[in-house]
């Protein structure tokens, strides 16, 4: 596996890989890789595609007071994991490489930025969309792989790629969970033992909402109540939001009268954890 830090070199290497004719995939990450990320790499490599994995802790998607400085970084370990997984290239640029002097572009998707995580993380999705657009420009992949764990990010990227006619196929990967149901996340490393013990209640809450969906067409209020019952009041976990939205447009839904994304954000102390499921009335949790 090649490790590339320079964006111009990355463009040259990507062009050589593309010339092989098997297709080129990009998996954008912020590193501190876990099994969830590696499942994306597995999907990227399917059908013999050559695969670039980017590791870049993108400063423009962190708000003031968020965890940019303490975000876990371990490039050596990431490289070893990616090598084993069969990735072709680890692209690890620095901030100067991605945002050279004079960089002035900012992508925004206002209607996607005022729901779910948006109001709590002003500027986050603009930062994500912008950095992904830059990475797409550097690598020019045929497909890019994103996890359903970050469902709002996935919807933002899909919309941007369609709007800007970037011609990149977006592959969505299922959420990879710990055996007790907690969605894998680089931020799980922040949890204290007590918080880690409580955290699976998030998945139990989502499963309770899915059980309601199986029975019919619950309202958003009923889904939230089912989730809240599992988290309980005044404990280690506190709910930031638990909302039902359209899976593609992120427009809020009052009732699960068609497929809906039930998405939650929960605080365990300072650590913010997100999770979600796509629910179908009369069926329960599905992936779309
Ligand atoms: P991050 O490094 O957290 O920015 O994540 C990079 C990519 O990995 C994103 O597309 C995430 O949605 C995806 N990802 C992170 N955690 C998981 C998980 N537990 N299951 C599936 N995909 C994940």
CATH architecture of the largest domain: 3-Layer(aba) Sandwich
Percent strand:
15-25%
* Overall average residue pLDDT: 98
CATH fold label of the largest domain: Rossmann fold
- Principal-axis shape equals globular
Per DSSP, the total helix count is: 10
What do we call the CATH homologous superfamily of the largest domain? Answer: HUPs
State the separation between the terminal residues, measured CA to CA.
Answer: 33 Å
**Ligands and ions found:** adenosine monophosphate
Helix content: 25-40%
Number of strands: 10
Radius of gyration: 19 Å
Number of domain units: 2
Strand order of the largest sheet: 1-4-3-2-5-6
The H/E string reads EHEHEHEHHHEHEHHHEEEE
Structural class: alpha/beta
How would a crystallographer describe the biggest sheet?
A: 6 strands, parallel
Give keywords:
288 residues; Rossmann fold; 2 domains; six-stranded parallel sheet; 10 helices; 10 strands; 36% helix; binds adenosine monophosphate
Task: Give your account of this protein's structure.
The chain has 288 residues and is α/β, with parallel strands linked by helices. Helix content is 36%, strand content 20%. The protein is built from ten helices and ten strands. Strands 1-4-3-2-5-6 form a six-stranded parallel β-sheet, with helices on both faces. It has a four-stranded antiparallel β-sheet with strand order 7-8-9-10. Strand 3, helix 3 and strand 4 (89-91) form a beta-alpha-beta unit. Helix 6 (124-139) crosses helix 7 (151-163) and helix 9 (201-215) packs antiparallel against helix 10. The mean pLDDT is 98. Residues 29-30, 36-37, 39-40, 146-147, 149-150, 173, 175-176, 183-186 line the site of adenosine monophosphate.
């Amino acid at each position: 596996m090649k490790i590339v830090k320079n964006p111009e070199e990355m463009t040259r290497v990507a062009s050589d890989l593309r010339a092989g004719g098997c297709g080129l995939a990009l998996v954008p990450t912020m590193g501190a890789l876990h099994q969830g990320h590696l499942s994306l790499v597995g999907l990227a490599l399917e059908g013999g595609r050559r695969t670039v994995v980017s590791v870049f802790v993108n400063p423009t998607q962190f708000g003031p007071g968020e965890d940019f400085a303490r975000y876990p970084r371990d490039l050596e370990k990431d490289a070893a994991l990616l090598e084993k997984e069969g990735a072709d290239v680890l692209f690890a640029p620095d901030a100067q490489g991605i945002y050279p002097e004079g960089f002035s572009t900012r992508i925004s998707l206002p209607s996607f930025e005022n729901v779910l995580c948006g109001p709590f993380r002003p500027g986050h999705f603009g930062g994500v969309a912008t950095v992904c657009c830059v990475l797409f420009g550097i690598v020019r992949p045929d497909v890019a792989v994103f996890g359903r764990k970050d469902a709002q990010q996935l919807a933002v990227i899909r919309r941007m790629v369609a709007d800007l006619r970037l011609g990149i196929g977006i592959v969505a990967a299922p959420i990879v969970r710990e055996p007790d149901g907690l969605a894998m996340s680089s931020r799980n490393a922040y949890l204290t033992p007590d918080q880690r013990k409580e955290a699976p209640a998030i998945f139990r809450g989502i499963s309770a909402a899915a059980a309601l969906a199986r029975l019919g067409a619950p309202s958003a209020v009923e889904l939230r109540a089912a989730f809240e019952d599992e988290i309980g009041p005044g404990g280690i976990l506190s709910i930031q939001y638990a909302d039902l939205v359209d899976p593609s447009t992120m427009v809020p839904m009052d009732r699960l009268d068609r497929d809906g994304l039930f998405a939650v954000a929960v605080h365990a102390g300072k650590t913010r954890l997100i999770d979600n499921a796509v629910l179908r009335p009369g069926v329960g949790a599905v992936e779309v």
